[in-house]
Structures are given as C-alpha cells and as structure tokens.
Amino acid sequence: MSERWTTAVLDTALPGGWAVARSSQGFLCNAQGVLFERDWLKQQPLDVLAEHGIGHFDGQPVYLLELRSPDTPDDCRWQGLRQFMLEGDFQVYRMLGYAAQIGTWAREHRFCGSCGGAMQQVHGERAMHCARCELRSYPRISPSMIVLVTRGDEVLLARSPRFVPGVYSTLAGFAEPGESAEDCLRREVMEEVQVSVRNIQYIGSQCWPFPHSMMLGFHAEYASGDIVPQLDEIEDAQWFHIDALPALPAGRSIARHLIDLYVARRSGLPEPVLPG
Question: What would the mean pLDDT of 234-261 be, rounded to a whole number?
Fold first, then answer.
C-alpha cells in the first residue's frame, strides 16, 4: 500500500494545492481538519514569515505557511502537535511533524549564522543560502538514543519533573560529538541512574519533531549498579515488574513501543509494530 504522505521540495511560485499554517500556538485547524485550500489561506490576514512546499498528501501538493503570530481566521482554532500525535489520523501527524521541523528550521535560519546576512531559500533544494558568504544551511536533525533497561521480568523506568504526573518512561538523551549511539546509551544511563548495561540491542527509530530529534531505540540488559537518580533530571527511577507497570507514555511513541515490545516478548504475546 502506498503511503498517503510523502515529502518533497515544491516550488512555492506554483499556484494551487493545500496548505497548513503553523504558529507558536500549533497548527491552524477547523471542523474539516488541518488542510486548507492554499489560495484561500493566503488571502487571510495572516502574518506569514515563510512559505515552503513540503510534499504530497493523498497525491495533492502541500505547502507550509510559517506565521510570525497566531492570527486566527473565523471558525478556526489552534491545536498543538502533541495532540495530533495522540489522536486522529497518524499520517496527518506525520505530515505535521515534518512541517513543524521545516517551520522551526525556517524560523531559526532567516539570517546566516556565520556572517549575519539574510538567508534565501534555494530553488529545488531543502536549503537556505547566504549570498554574502556562500554558507548553506540544511534542516537540523539531532540524533538521540532511547533505551529500555531490563532485568528479567523487570524494567527500569524513570520520570522527569517535566512529565505528566504519575507517568514513567524509558531513559533517553542526545548524542554528543564523537559518540556512537551505543556510547551515548551507556553514558546517558550511567548519568541518569548510575547503572551499567550490557547486550545492547537496536530495535528501531522514530522521528520526534519536538523540535527536531531522531530517536534511536534500544533494549539493554542490566549489568551492575544501584539506581541513583540524577539531580534535576530524574525525579524518580524504579524497577517495575512487567505485570505491575505504572502509567506509561503515549501509545504512538517509541518509548511506549519499547516497553510494549519487551512485555510482549516476555509474555509470549504478538509483537506490536512501531508506528511510522
């Protein structure tokens, strides 16, 4: 089955197509959804910072309007990206996740990071170009690891002060320059809970557009150490039996997939599929 959403660099000089609008408040939507006729949307009193052609949805071209301010047309409202992730059409969320990353990049690269000159979109390429010093900037992707540490029928879960109350999740962190994903995993687990791991197994990856991460998912077995939560980063961390788990992350997240996959394998249940 062909995918409903595919990315592409589209010429903004072409007429027609669909458009999504994004501001600091999320994405514009109404009773019909988040896709608007592009020509209609561009006629609204919106303060457009940048426009990018981002791909095709159900075969139709889609453009992003990145806005300076959350001006709201009649009968419309704003909805955050996380809410789209938690409910509704996952293909729509994938499209909006990509749009969010392009919008963040467009907003943060209006001016050259080398000489301060104005940046211009490169025709036919997802890049911004500085004519003054010839610097080209491309959308940023930040690799990070996320790992479920296991010990037989127990899993090590932790909660950050930023989590919804009661929710525990896997450990995660961004890769440093010069690190492999495995080096990053070992370092982050040690930093966050003072535990050593072994038998690292790669599971899968997921784009995490909050704002521009690529999450590399792993399982790893406990090797040694007692849990000591990292100050200011980890509010609590515990071993949980797979039959007595706490509140867990959203079902469409790779964090939840790592947990559900391990529980399925230990329990002899069908293995879940990572949304993607």
Answer: 96
